[in-house]
Amino acid sequence: MVQLQSHAGDALAGPHIAWYVYVLRSFLALGVLGACAWGTMALAYRCPGAPAVRYFVIAWWIALGIAAIVALLRVRASVPLKGWPLGFLIAMVLLLGWWHTIKPANDRNWAADVAQLLDPQQDGSRITLHNVRNFEWRTETDFTPRWETREYDLDKLVSADLVLSYWMGPAIAHTLVSFAFSDGQRVVFSIEIRKKQGQKFSAVGGFFKDFEATLVAADERDILRVRSNVRGETVYLYRLNIPPKALREVFLGYLERARELRRTPAWYNTLTSNCTTIVFELARIIAPGLPLDYRLLLSGYFAEYAYDQGGLTPGFTYAQLYDRGNFVSRALAAGDSPDFSTLIRQGVPGDDPKVTP
């Protein structure tokens, strides 16, 4: 009787064991699928050699992934696994090992607009910036390059503006910060991809070590006008509500990032190391309690996030700041005027003293 009960228990346990094993194999198969997709993109962007070699390696990688998934999803749990999953695991380890050998560099054949690295020097309150960009842009491909050395007095730093330039719908924008001094000088800082000659920006490529990062310091008639007047982007400007001590720390934070990039090249990452994340990182140094938010990833909504944290001009609704911050029509009218910076700020709360809530 005991023996019969034991056989019956085994018969009932069998299907449950098979179901759990199948679920486990399904999760493993999903993991292989994700790893296979990532590896395919990594090889597509970074595999060395001729295109024929790259296509062959990618085809081999995909075939190995498919074989591993098929082996894992065999319907009957009692069917032993073949060697494909183990083979894929070994290949994945080798791929990751190769991936970590790909290092960023500062000595490539760079595009003209990112050819120079910002070199900041500080002597007390005197700041000297070597390689400030001040290009004269006629079109995106027709320009006169100028790299200048400029001096600023940190004791005269009075304000900063957040600039968002929209180039791919309402959710994605490039983030810049423009600092103003009481003597009338301004300088804009922007974390950008460091393109090589002939290279085009790719948001996907930004996940796969396709671009190094660079910190550009530029004149507003260069870096803002090229976006509004030359590229046809929609650009907004917001006065930041930052106390003087914190303002100084943010400015110095940009200088330190420039020094870091000179010492140690870094990859630009579309998600984790881009034009918006540096602004957030610097802000958290000043106010460590700043919350994480989806608007840090969807950079087009970053100004709204800053408003919710009290970081924009007080006394106005966000709709008012958004409405009055669009300076494209004013930039087009200003052209290359020496008063470009003043003209684009007409009507901007916090920047234009005539504008009241």
Automatic annotation (TrEMBL):
One Pfam short name: Lnb_N
Say if the entry is tagged with keyword rRNA-binding. Answer: no
Q: What region holds the Lnb N-terminal periplasmic domain?
A: 144-300
Q: What is this protein called?
A: Lnb N-terminal periplasmic domain-containing protein
Q: Which InterPro entries match?
A: Lnb_N
Classification lineage? Bacteria, Pseudomonadati, Pseudomonadota, Betaproteobacteria, Burkholderiales
Q: Does the keyword Transmembrane apply?
A: yes
Query: What keywords are assigned to this protein?
Result: Membrane, Transmembrane, Transmembrane helix
**Species of origin:** Pandoraea bronchicola
